[in-house]
Q: What sequence folds into this?
């Protein structure tokens, strides 16, 4: 049947949206183009966030802080908690080791209550071989602090992850990037000293006096700790890498209590130059080695492959033991032309949607908003992003729809309300953390607009309508293009039910902006 634009059954989408845009932004073209904070204040009643499914290997330590928003104090309960785990009722932190080593699912109900109400949600713990059943979320220091990470900074970041509400939205990993080890040839006394001890175990540099104490601190908050190294002799920033000491390093990371490793190709290029053996075996070898070593450890460590997409890593990253893999070069170095660099990185990442799934994620690099350092000149202090508000909503929406790992890498010590509003939207993040684990596919992409659709576990669809043009634009999607008919539509940034739509749905979207909606089936 030919589809003719139809008015929705309940409301006229365009007029309502038009009003919403103007109301949210004031009047005038500039205001219409650049909205401020779109999301209403969070509810004061409890709302449990985060994934509904979580993977752990048999016999490995378990740690999970139930992310929840709403007034504090809050009391947490968990029905069906497997033997070996204990829940702290005041903090919502679950710890322990599940005593039943059988690979199986444990079905729980998480409950949070406060003076205003109560919320409950199903939660499934899957004891098996797959970690990162939903995309990992956290903060990484690289794009703000570059070669200056320290114990003090990481503790502060962990504290802020809690106090800013990021942890209540599911952010969990506090990740140290490059430059935590010694640097050969450095004049800085903090970076000098032997690379390794007499057992061949890598030493942290003088800015990290006690790594175990640091991860203890992070774990006490219910958060997790991440680290970085390279399979080459040197990291990208010229610090000591793992080459020749891979087994010691895997054991060291466990001894120190880390939960995440980013393994960055870099100087491995010198160990295995192009043509030294056939690709992709040459490219896979170091990752298979570390992937295998990590699986053998008595601790779960999520492995992020950082090799910029070489050899179609998305086709083999999971098989060598990776849980996510960078699909492109560094976002902070990407020179945008007509559009900011995150678009071209995102478009390249979007092509590999077929390869993503629970435990295997395409990684288009970090979320760079708020105060961000300059990757082209790391000596420059962090500056406020040059991305417009609309572009920031588009960036986050693309990453969410692409089931990308969500790592903020701007200055966590200087979060402003707008940046937090982009990072901490429970309904938006729920799309990213959906248990089905599908990456959005393009419904359409032209020079002026694109539409991404991500099917969700409950049968609903998350749909992003993105405007790439310089003017406000009406973007439509036909239900037939999405393979559905009648749907109830909710605006996820504004937390507004828009109405019921039959043949198609249209939205007026500002310059470089997005309308991100969930389309629910109607019983
Ligand atoms: C590479 C990676 C970045 C960062 C730096 C550290 O460029 O792609 O994400 O880890 O190395 O030196």
A:
């Amino acid at each position: 049947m030919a589809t003719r634009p139809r008015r929705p059954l309940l409301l006229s989408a365009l007029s309502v949206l038009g009003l919403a845009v103007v109301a949210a932004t004031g009047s005038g073209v500039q205001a219409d183009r650049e909205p401020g904070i779109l999301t209403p204040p969070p509810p004061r009643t409890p709302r449990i966030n985060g994934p509904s499914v979580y993977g752990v290997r048999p016999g490995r330590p378990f740690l999970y802080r139930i992310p929840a928003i709403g007034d504090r104090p809050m009391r947490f309960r968990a029905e069906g908690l497997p033997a070996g785990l204990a829940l702290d009722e005041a903090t919502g932190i679950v710890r322990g080791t599940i005593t039943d080593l059988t690979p199986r699912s444990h079905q729980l109900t998480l409950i949070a209550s406060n003076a205003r109400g109560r919320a409950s949600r199903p939660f499934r713990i899957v004891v098996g071989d797959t970690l990162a059943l939903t995309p990992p979320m956290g903060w990484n220091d690289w794009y703000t602090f570059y070669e200056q990470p320290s114990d003090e900074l990481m503790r502060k970041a962990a504290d802020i992850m809690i106090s800013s509400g990021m942890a209540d939205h599911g952010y969990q990993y506090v990740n140290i990037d490059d430059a935590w080890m010694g640097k050969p040839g450095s004049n800085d006394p903090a970076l000098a000293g032997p690379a390794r001890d007499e057992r061949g175990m890598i030493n942290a540099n003088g800015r990290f006096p006690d790594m175990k104490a640091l991860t203890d601190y992070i774990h006490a908050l219910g958060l997790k700790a991440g680290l970085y190294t390279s399979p080459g002799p040197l990291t990208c920033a010229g610090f000591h890498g793992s080459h020749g000491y891979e087994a010691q390093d895997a054991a060291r990371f466990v001894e120190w209590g880390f939960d995440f490793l980013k393994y960055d190709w870099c100087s491995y290029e010198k160990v295995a130059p192009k043509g030294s053996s056939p690709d992709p075996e040459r490219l896979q070898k170091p990752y298979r080695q570390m992937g295998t070593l990590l699986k053998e450890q008595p601790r779960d460590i999520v492995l992020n492959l950082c090799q910029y997409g070489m050899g179609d890593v998305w086709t083999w990253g999971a098989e060598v033991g990776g849980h996510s893999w960078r699909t492109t070069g560094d976002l902070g170095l990407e020179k945008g032309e007509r559009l900011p660099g995150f678009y071209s990185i995102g478009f390249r990442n979007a092509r590999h949607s077929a390869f993503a799934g629970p435990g295997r994620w395409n990684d288009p690099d970090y979320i760079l908003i708020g105060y961000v350092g300059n990757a082209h000149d790391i000596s420059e202090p962090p500056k406020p992003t040059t991305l417009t508000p609309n572009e920031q909503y588009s960036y986050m929406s693309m990453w969410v729809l692409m089931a990308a790992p969500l790592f903020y890498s701007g200055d966590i010590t200087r979060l402003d309300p707008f940046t937090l509003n982009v990072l901490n939207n429970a309904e938006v993040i729920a799309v990213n953390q959906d248990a089905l684990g599908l990456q959005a596919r393009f419904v359409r992409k032209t020079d002026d607009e694109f539409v991404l659709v991500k099917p969700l576990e409950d049968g609903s669809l998350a749909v992003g309508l993105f405007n790439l043009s310089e003017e406000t634009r009406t973007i439509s999607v036909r239900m037939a293009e999405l393979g559905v008919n009648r749907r109830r539509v909710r605006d996820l940034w504004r937390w507004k039910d828009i109405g019921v739509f039959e043949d198609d749905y249209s939205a007026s979207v500002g310059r470089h902006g997005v309308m991100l909606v969930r389309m629910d089936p109607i019983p």
About this structure: Residues 39 and 161 are 20 Å apart (CA to CA). The chain has 13 helices and 27 strands.
